[in-house]
């Protein structure tokens, strides 16, 4: 799928992040593929997936465009979303339509640079490159470096970015106003209303993960809310 067709297909639409860490109950390619199929039935226009096996399987089974990442921790850096050429190559081999990577200004593992990773993508595929950023400065730098899209994924996950609860609507708006490339809203978007607001602020598309694909987190939120309601009710009775 060429760049313009893919971007047009994503405009104003929902991308569902289907990921589960190794210590989570839904971890595994078969489960994540089923989750992606469910997302497609619900109307998702693309999937964000982690790992070569998941990216490849989800793309084959759903037929949807897949934003591929590989999360891997290195001892010499805090960057773990597609951090080196090894992870980029795995995404390429899996057939990802878009390769997303940490594009923050932090030191990368092994001293690799973003421009080196971009060059590997350009020289070996027609994939689009997505920059996961945490600030406006990083988004501007990513556009200048040659990325095709910028995502707000890492807002709140760097020590110098916004650390408040809820989506970073200010970053979504500022990036949309400053950049000429599409801005993807991602990060702590928990309701359809928040997703709609992101589009209204200029986002090209919206990624939702936890609120759709992490039931253990959602269950915990309900449990904690009920505990709070119980406390409030007890206080009212005491009075």
Description:
The chain is an alpha/beta fold and 239 residues long. It has a single domain, classed as Aldolase class I (TIM Barrel, Alpha-Beta Barrel). The protein has ten helices and eight strands. Helix 2 links the parallel strand 1 and strand 2. It is an enzyme of class 5 (isomerase). Its EC number is 5.1.3.9. It holds the Pfam family NanE. Converts N-acetylmannosamine-6-phosphate (ManNAc-6-P) to N-acetylglucosamine-6-phosphate (GlcNAc-6-P).
Summarize the structure.
The protein has 239 residues and is an alpha/beta fold. The chain is built from ten helices and eight strands.
List the helices and strands and how they pair.
Layout: H1 3-10, E1 13-18, H2 29-42, E2 46-50, H3 52-62, E3 66-69, H4 85-94, E4 98-102, H5 114-124, E5 128-132, H6 136-145, E6 149-151, H7 169-178, E7 183-186, H8 192-200, E8 205-208, H9 210-213, H10 215-238
Parallel strand pairs: 1-2, 1-8, 2-3, 3-4, 4-5, 5-6, 6-7, 7-8
Helix pairs in contact: 2-3, 3-4, 4-5
Family: Belongs to the NanE family.
Keywords: Carbohydrate metabolism, Isomerase
Enzyme class: isomerase
